[in-house]
Design brief:
By secondary structure, this protein is of the alpha+beta class. About 35% of the residues lie in helices and about 10% in strands. A hairpin with a 6-residue loop joins strand 1 and strand 2. Bound molecules: flavin-adenine dinucleotide (FAD).
Amino acid sequence: MQECDPFFFQGCDPATDSFMFFSFQDTPANNDRDNQDTYDCQVIVSWPYRAEFLGRSEPTETPATSEERLRLMKEITRDWASPFRDVVQDMPSTSTVQAIRLEDWPPEEGSWENFDGRATLVGDAAHAMTMYRGEAANHGITDVARWLDFHLPVLKSKERSGGDLKGACDAYEREMIARTHLAVLASRQACLDAHDHERVNERSPLVSKRAPIATA
Ligand SMILES: Cc1cc2nc3c(=O)[nH]c(=O)nc-3n(C[C@H](O)[C@H](O)[C@H](O)COP(=O)(O)OP(=O)(O)OC[C@H]3O[C@@H](n4cnc5c(N)ncnc54)[C@H](O)[C@@H]3O)c2cc1C
């Protein structure tokens, strides 16, 4: 897998419209496990929620147990090419397979109360998005940077009034909501495209360039 990429990669299966994401979480050089000569890897397999997938009449639900989930992952990847197939097929039966619920929430102005600027939302709490563009945490970090940009001048000012705090918070929310509303929808489209191979082209948000975010 390291020959494919030292960090991570993703790919779609044109035959089934299923999708793989592989990443190294750590390596022998930086893990603190007892058996240090090991790698920690994340292997994600996702599939389109529709009838006829794997020849089944009903859409395929996520199984309830880890064992059943591993069995499904192996069924989905059975006809993939090496090494993508092998990395799933060789997973030991003791592997823990967790389900990720794909949900998103495009934020809108007025969706929450900021109590005159004394409380607001940042990160996933403000703008949960699917992970198919890998940008949610980046936006969470940007939220904090922008919150500071708007609030530090007010907090450092000796002559501030209550209205200044509310103004800074409203300005933060306007910037954050405009930026992340689009990001949530782009990530949603990337998720849909990831499971529809025909749609994966240079215009798809799955592979298109991530927009650089201007800082104040
Ligand atoms: C598979 C996957 C891959 C991803 N890849 C990327 C990527 O490549 N790039 C990227 O930018 N983003 C990625 N993300 C998204 C990223 O992980 C999230 O955007 C980020 O972790 C959100 O951080 P957060 O602090 O806002 O929320 P969280 O990380 O969810 O933190 C919230 C914390 O609050 C705690 N909590 C909840 N309720 C309470 C309560 N009532 N009291 C006290 N504590 C509470 C939770 O336990 C949690 O620790 C990925 C996500 C997934 C699932």
